[in-house]
Amino acid sequence: xxxxxxxxxxxxxxxxxxxxxxxxxxxxxxxxxxxxxxxxxxxxxxxxxxxxxxxxxxxxxxxxxxxxxxxxxxxxxxxxxxxxxxxxxxxxxxxxxxxxxxxxxxxxxxxxxxxxxxxxxxxxxxxxxxxxxxxxxxxxxxxxxxxxxxxxxxxxxxxxxxxxxxxxxxxxxxxxxxxxxxxxxxxxxxxxxxxxxxxxxxxxxxxxxxxxxxxxxxxxxxxxxxxxxxxxxxxxxxxxxxxxxxxxxxxxxxxxxxxxxxxxxxxxxxxxxxx
Length: 275
Prior knowledge:
Elements: H1 6-16, H2 22-31, E1 37-41, E2 44-54, E3 58-66, H3 75-89, E4 94-99, H4 101-107, E5 113-123, E6 134-136, H5 142-153, H6 158-166, E7 171-176, E8 182-189, E9 195-202, H7 205-210, E10 224-229, H8 232-236, E11 243-255, E12 266-268
Parallel strand pairs: 3-4, 9-10
Antiparallel strand pairs: 1-2, 2-3, 4-11, 5-10, 5-11, 6-7, 7-8, 8-9, 9-12
Helix pairs in contact: 5-6
């Protein structure tokens, strides 16, 4: 896949009703240009898939999309296997993805196993008083964010965090304790259908609440969308009300899950396409 194929990728994304913007495709091509794939059938663009590796600990497969007119020809499976092969050739211990219930049926047959269930929430939330210690984060604080993020995420994703902190359309805020130590951060970026919150990472529920959705100033008028670990406890500690669960995905992996991170501290993921 190349930058010239982004318009085609966007057309597939719109047919699927997903939330990505062209800049999301640009990030994939920057992070892993050789891991972005385009399928052609009868000389026409037919489908896409992306992959990104996080050290040799794990890699992520995303954006597996096939044009409706080109389905049932094995293109989706071919794209999936190309992305998996790319990651496994790079030596990652585990290949991961976030599967729909329908997609899980295929992944079960090619060596993927369930890790845990993810929930996607959407709504407008409720405003809350802005807490002290909430700070807008910039690229100058990359190493602080990276050091905090790595153990919770499970791998080095410095390049993803750098884009998050550098892009002018992405707002990132951090919550610091009295000693000036980072204890939570959240990023908010525009999407086609809704603002997307994530990553949203904190050392506990109260720290997550201090940089959560209702704390943003000025408040955002569009709906928010975010995804997180869907265990009952996670639902119980959501610091904002006014959200409904839209759907669920199953986080799956193939290989050795040697670095699972701390999903209970990931209140929102960056996205199902990049983990």
